[in-house]
Amino acid sequence: MADDQPDYRRRGTLARAVGIHGTDTEEEYYSHPLVVLFQGAVALTPLATAAGAAAGAAFTSGLVFWGCSALAALLAWPSLVGLVGALRLVAGMQTVALIYKDRVLVQRGSSFEDVSWDDVESVYVRTRAGNSDNLVFYEPGSRFVLWVGTAVPLAKFWTEWTEMHTRDGRVIRLPSTISDYDNLSRAVQSGVSFRAWPRALADHRAGRPVSFGPLTVEAEGLRIGSFRIRWADHQCTWSEGGRVVTINTSGMQVGPAILTEQVPNLAVAAYLVNQISTGSVNPASTDES
């Protein structure tokens, strides 16, 4: 890694992956055994508690029996969720993600996907729970950041992932079981958005519609599904409660709410819409801001 101290030592799956694919990495991510151990212990806490309550019910009677039984029953679903999360943590320990200057590599055991930044068409952040929210943007010169979090930390171990879609149709998934997944997801989204922004801006200035899945930025306005709103009537488009919402100048929501995780390159889409709405960008503009 570029910022490693001289005594930095790679071990296990990370060392093997770097040995195969090159040590000139900019960032490295893997499942750290101690992190997996801690997360696994947290995930299995409901199961251990439920087991203890069930054991207590087996050797007691009366109110204590009913109390222990009720506790075990209440923890049945959290125990199942935790067990699945722990199993996915263990299964994901063979996954390594390496970020190089010109490419991203994801290795799972002996198989790997190696894709150049220029071949990535779009990036999505997915959550089974549909709790994607919390957007943070930076100027193009500092790269974009799209931050999408899962509301329940325990569920994050197995219900959240980042997807890269390539121009040749591949879908490369980065699971949240990787230690420091938040920073990995941020780095991948930033890398893709930083390269997608100039293309989106050039298309818009040329008068071409720029598609972001269910959202399309047009010269005359924003299309949300089949609904169109003119830029003169547009106030803002933002993410709330895992959905992208558009507000007109009267303060009313217009068009349908779109699930955040259905919008590819959401950071680029939101930034482009913001720049057009504020008059910083228009089809005839030569300003690079």
Describe this structure in words.
The model is unreliable at 1-7 and 285-289 (pLDDT under 50). The relative contact order is 0.11. The strands form 4 sheets. A 4-stranded antiparallel β-sheet has the order 1-2-3-4, sandwiched between helices. Strands 8-9-10-11 form a 4-stranded antiparallel β-sheet. A 3-stranded antiparallel β-sheet has the order 5-6-7. It is built from 7 helices and 14 strands. The protein is of the alpha+beta class and 289 residues long. It has helices spanning 12-21, 33-58, 62-74, 76-91, 153-159, 181-205, 266-277, and strands at 27-30, 95-99, 103-108, 111-116, 120-127, 160-166, 171-175, 210-212, 215-217, 221-224, 227-230, 234-240, 243-248, 258-259. The longest helix has 26 residues, at 33-58.
